[in-house]
Design brief:
By secondary structure, this protein is an alpha/beta fold. It has two domains: 16-151 and 314-334, Rossmann fold; 154-312, Rossmann fold (3-Layer(aba) Sandwich), CATH 3.40.50.2000. The chain contains eleven helices and twelve strands. It is globular, with a radius of gyration of 20 Å. The two termini are 24 Å apart.
Length: 335
């Protein structure tokens, strides 16, 4: 199992890819699968851990990302023939190492950061096995063995039947995620807004977000670890998710619903695969439509939100889906 090394696996606060890798790894081990996890040396796992990078490069500025990415990936592929299967969660770079081993490689594509990376995926199409994380994120130029939605650990998210009165923005502070639009919605609706997430675009934060942060009507609390995340998501009247890009999946949307909190999202990317409009949230096309429909949140059954996640987005379901993918690949290779 090849994890990214931006953050520890599992992450202390932010790190969606590392979160998925950890949940999948631990779930496989519980089912008796012999897993070797390649991650940072400070990672926590019940699998066998192999590491060359001491800490995540986003957590230690002395670590050169490109240098340690190369060392990390090559460490796995130099031992690739020791394994029955290699599962890559490290984006496109490991594909260029796949000729070093005869072991089949399955790559979960956690979204396309840019169309410019597609040529790498196209070059190795048919040589490795691709898994999409939503139907919306499938490229028509690639072949996929499956679509596997992310799962979450439901024990980390407490259901709240009665929320507080604030709106919540939970995600990277970046134009793609729509923090400014969330502020517009909250201010126009006369509701308090809490923003939580890492600042990924400092200039955007300083010009579009910080001027509105007053600690009362608009509050920024930084990146939230598991305990604070659980409290914020469960206490929110609604999660506001006004994205400006085609979201490949959206873990925060599922996590909010697990706490019973409905989601007001712009209808882009995978959102309509996750949210049932009018049942677990609202799918809107603009700030204006979100404002117009916001009162509908009061009629959404918070228990329906929780039930949807239990049925569709548990970590256990994700593990079973990946086990089915592994079996299909190994059976195909055996034939």
């Amino acid at each position: 199992m090849l994890a990214p090394i931006a953050w520890r696996t599992p992450p202390r606060h932010y790190g969606p890819w590392e979160t998925v890798v950890s949940l999948l790894t631990e779930g496989l081990v519980r089912r008796g699968v012999d897993v070797t996890l390649y991650a940072t040396a400070d990672s926590i796992t019940s699998a066998r851990l192999r590491a060359v990078c001491p800490r995540g490069y986003e957590e230690d500025p002395t670590i050169d990302a490109k240098v340690w990415e190369c060392l990390h990936i090559s460490e796995l592929f130099e031992h690739g023939d020791e394994f029955d299967l290699i599962h890559n969660h490290f984006d496109f770079l490991p594909l260029t190492y796949t000729k070093m081993t005869r072991t089949p490689v399955v790559t979960t594509i956690h979204g396309f950061s840019s169309p410019r990376i597609l040529p790498v995926y196209k070059k190795y199409n048919g040589k490795v096995y691709y898994v999409a994380i939503s139907e919306a994120d499938r490229s028509p130029e690639l072949d996929y063995v499956a679509t596997v939605y992310h799962g979450i650990d439901l024990t980390q998210f407490d259901f709240r039947a009665t929320p507080d009165d604030y709106l919540l923005f939970f995600g990277r502070i970046h134009p793609d995620k729509g923090a400014r639009e969330a502020i517009e919605i909250a201010r126009a609706a006369g509701r308090r807004l809490i923003l939580a997430g890492i600042i990924q675009d400092r200039a955007y934060f300083e010009t579009e977000v910080r001027p509105w942060v007053d600690g009362e009507r608009v509050q920024y609390v930084g990146s939230a670890g598991p305990e604070l995340r659980n409290r914020l998501l469960g206490g929110a009247w609604a999660l506001v998710h006004p994205i400006n890009f085609n979201e490949p999946f959206g873990l925060s949307v599922v996590e909010a619903m697990a706490c019973g909190t409905p989601v007001v999202a712009f209808d882009r990317g995978s959102m309509r695969e996750i949210i049932q409009d009018g049942v677990t949230g609202l799918l809107c096309r603009s700030v204006e439509e979100a404002l117009e429909r916001l009162p509908e949140i009061a009629s959404i059954d918070r228990r329906a939100c929780r039930r949807s996640v239990e049925a569709r987005f548990s970590a256990e379901r994700m593990v079973e889906d990946y086990l089915a993918v592994y079996r299909r690949i190994l059976e195909q290779r055996a034939r």
